[in-house]
């Protein structure tokens, strides 16, 4: 009986050892921390870990804020660049408009001057023509009227020829206004060189039978 009891005790002890080994293996495999390990972590360690976490969060916020500021600065620079481009384009458009208007005004000046001149000569001829058609007017007066009509027509033809010859010298446009002996010639040009003025004087003097001192030349 003693032998049996001794064997039973041995078996019981072995069983306890196996159970203990199994329990330890179970706790290790499931990640349980032994009491001795937990006791090694102090309150200072916990504070330090918390501080690291806070520092990481603050750094992340700073990076995010810097990124947002960089994006905002980039957007501001882009907008300013666009504004500058728009201002430049607007300035160019305004300059082109001013140039176009200036050229249009010049064209209008020459066209309106020629039209006014033609209207004046037409009215003068019409007045002299009425004299010729009036039966109460003397023959002497009708002769004078006829001579004036011929003079006006000759002047108009001479002006037309002179203007065409001046334009053949490379000028875009010109207008000649005759007032008795005084002849005014306005040329469409930025400037007139001395040799160009001499050419215009020679043409006007020859075609309009005028003296050089009576010819006045200007540019527009």
Description:
With 220 residues, the chain is mainly α. The chain has a domain of 131 residues: Helix Hairpins. It is built from five helices and three strands; from the N terminus they run ααααββαβ. It has a three-stranded mixed beta sheet. Helix 5 links the parallel strand 2 and strand 3. About 18% of the residues have low confidence.
Short overview:
The chain has 220 residues and is mostly helical. Helices cover 76% and strands 8% of the residues.
Task: Chart the SSEs and their pairings.
Layout lengths: L1 H28 L5 H5 L3 H91 L5 H29 L6 E6 L2 E6 L6 H15 L6 E5 L1
Key features of this structure:
220 residues; mainly alpha; Helix Hairpins; 3-stranded mixed beta sheet; 5 helices; rod-shaped
Please give the CATH class of the domain at 89-219: Mainly Alpha
H/E series: HHHHEEHE
Helix-strand makeup class? mainly alpha
Please give the share of residues in helix.
over 70%
Oligomer: single chain
User: Under CATH, the topology of the domain at 89-219 is which?
Assistant: Helix Hairpins
